[in-house]
Amino acid sequence: MASRVRLVDVARNAGVSPTTASLILSGSRADAFASATQKKVHEAARSLGYTRSILGSSLKSGATRTICFFYTPPMDRFVERFQLHASARLEEESLHLVSIPVCIGDEQQIVNALSCGLYDSACLACNPTSAEALMDLLPTPPIPTMIFGTLPPNPSYIGVTIDETAGITQALSGLEKGGAKKIAYLTQRRSAEELENEPRWHAYTKYLKDSHLGIPQVLAYTEGSIPSAFQCATTIFTGRDDLPDAVYCDSDRVAIGAVLAATQCGIAIPDDLQIIGTGASVDGGDLHPALSTIGLDNRDLDSAVTLLSTLSGEEPESTTLTLRWHYMPRGTTH
Hints:
The protein is an alpha/beta fold and 334 residues long. Helices cover 44% and strands 16% of the residues. The chain has three domains: 7-52, 434 Repressor (Amino-terminal Domain), CATH 1.10.260; 66-163 and 298-327, Response regulator (Rossmann fold, 3-Layer(aba) Sandwich), CATH 3.40.50; 165-295, Response regulator (Rossmann fold). It contains 14 helices and twelve strands. Helix 1 crosses helix 2, helix 5 crosses helix 14 (298-310) and helix 8 (165-177) crosses helix 10 (199-211). The longest helix has 16 residues, at 77-92.
């Protein structure tokens, strides 16, 4: 097995000192050397196949330019969308995002990672149970740490709250203005007991009550997947004359299943039935017609990523950030 090429090997090949080679390859003082010397060092490094140790140089400077991202598996669509968006944005600033799954009950794993010295900052997009457990285990984190979700106030952590209610109200108002007088609810929850803990259900029922649009109606309980929603919606749509004017779905997966079922049953979308999803997923945008949905747009994600990137170098001006959902009307609504 070939030995790893060292900095001293590059220096010897280029005929310079290891210090000179290090300064040129790091770029920190390259302009202090003649262009011919810089060229010799870079050519030597290239010919020998030398690569700098990012971790080693980071530890010397006291910054690793690495952010740890914790999530509860399986990664849901919003967390996945944020993680992909954040990775791309942070890479532009030479910051690296390392994603680590953490199951409920394994919060000591988060404590260990925050304390190991390999990360400049961290972000948690975990189940609220894990986030609260972390704050109990570690009231003051050793590195700046951002948490998604509504949690007990703790100025030692940076809280990012997502306000869903305004977006849901805006979407339901859009359905009403589009002529819908009967709006049903299709859920990713499996039972009425689970649904009672769903904030989106309560926002829906409140809007119907305030707008005098009748009694809230659960069209079906599903398992949260596209196939499950498709099967449930197909059963409901087949041979029924008393369909609602519109359906609000508390996830994009469920909404996609409903759109596919309606199409198979010969129901015209959106003329005969309007459908709105939740989550602003890429899958919904790829649907034909494109799914109307509620969620965060890229500008909202950018504000969270910007806050996350500043944590690696300075103290934030505020320990809270509120992101508000928007209604995104597309092809499945008027």
